[in-house]
């Protein structure tokens, strides 16, 4: 006779998995920013880094935050401490990365790049259109920075306010008000005078403006107070390397390239300025430098003033071409001016280059559904494929805890350059308050685990957490960012449930390793509409259509990858499939694509359709290319944004591919082929209820189960199909391949026997906090926050003595736990759990009394948000047990040997 737990092991014999799965490398393990708010001592460094390693982290990047004075950043004391910390990381087997700047926004070096070099401060291009000979440009604001609060403004600007000066005329044009064409534009630059004022500038034209005509003046100005640089200038990029990066290299010496292996840049970009007279298609002021004028005229063969006018005014058929040439040139100059010096620095020191640009889609699937207030064309935030060509490893930015575009796009751009998958930086913004920087101290381990799994299924190799904290800040100080406590919380290592983190890290690292070196079965290619984005701007329908394609495909359980136009032009067509970037597609979708880059694209599209491929369009159909006119015939067109039902009808046109998976709930899934012609199938039950799935593959299959929790796998078995019961939040990894000769019936997996009875433990509990004090009686059907412990965040200790009238095999079922629990029975550890279902096997218990202790961890929200403006209407948060525990009884049963 054996216990239920022993029987389960016998039914599914497991064997040790290879090291790549059982003990994943650091590149698969969670990474984290380590926020420095002051200089830590060597003892503090070693203690925290050891803790980070023991909790499952593989890579650490030190990031100096706003609480650390700028005067300390890159000081001799800072660099000495930095080198000591990296050396300790090496001793502990951790990988280090070099986060390249103070706080964020790469290129400013904590203000050092522009100190003594005012000409390198960001210079912007502004414009105004008047129907009189005089006008002004004033009321310049930085709403993007202002939304983050005064402390961020003080960091970005001397005195906390952007002030502009050194005004220069760039171009002045007379043109008809209605639909001007290039032939009717008159350059009157020499007749316009610019005079700076305290608020901006005034301009005057020495002639008259005919009725029905307009004067548009373009002027540049330097932000006199900004610490941000002009990314167009190679001198600025090189000076950042000299004053912001070389000091690290000098201090680290032989610590590069081991254990410090890579350089990470973060959201380089100018201020997103608006002003009172702003009009036209372009939503923010772009950077300006004289070299831009020459480069744009060379690329376009058109006078610079005319090209500038096309950015804000429709000039007829030439508009799209001129805009695309301007933004393409502008972006290339930023690549040359800033990213190339970074790449050269990395090469000199044996480092790989990674990092991420501003991603306007962060937290969303729509291309501009995240940072929707900005125009991404003024910063490196549109040409994701082009920028990735400069990186050695792809990295993207993700926000909060839902599925989103970033990892899928990151994996896609990596595959366009012969790599795969991506680093995903995951940061947290507040949802209980409008002050987003206050973060989410209410983050639960279940939420973190689910999002980490979700990101891996969407294309992440490594999740980079934002962040681990050096300190948890100060009480009685609710200033955002200045008080580390509210610097994009949570600092995971100050969460009461932190001891549970290692289980999450080990499981998700094994999941990531399981997905490595595979090719997704993604039958749909989604076209990235770069030139439409440049020509039309972020408010155009392409941004929404793109997002709806992504979501509707996901709702149908259909994987997809994003491809750029260059990859499409280089694609091959074989067997009616589009072969791109190592993948093959049965269909290509164009989301409201109005402008293409080249007429050559139409050739490959035509060949694909002629070979039997599916070409789907939605919204605007392509009207032209930057180098000529074109004509495209799609096999299906959707006038509106696609929804799940529309996509279902389109997918029915495609031949079946891969296994058939039927289920009723919300199941995340990823299917890919590996080098041994197995399919790797990952299933994740995102719902709150168990779900029954049926997996079929041809007439039968061979299969293995890989256990990401234990690091083991089963031997190959055969079945006609698999019947799987997925518990809530359960993750399953399978390898399977078709085997017509497979014997056996449907294989039931993960089905648990039903208990013979259940007994509620609803009375007699005592409670005390980990801070000490007397044990008190407590109810277990409501949290401790309503029983006298509203402000308590930590570990609550529940104890109960219960009696059994006979020996039994028992599982403890905790129907509702906020948020994690460790169980001890009769003084021995029984197990721990930080996500549902909260069930712990107690083993075979004898008749008589038994002592049960539950150590329940809540989140830090009740402690850290108490008395602050960030508590929100839901405070205090639910904590501890909120439903009576149950004992599930199982009768001993025989096991086939």
UniProtKB/TrEMBL annotation:
Superkingdom as given in the UniProt entry: Bacteria
InterPro entries for the chain: Class_I_gatase-like, Galactose-bd-like_sf, Ulvan_degrading_GH
Family matches, as SUPFAM superfamilies: Galactose-binding domain-like (SSF49785)
Transmembrane segments: none
Protein name stated in the entry: Carbohydrate-binding protein
Biological source species: Rhizobium lusitanum
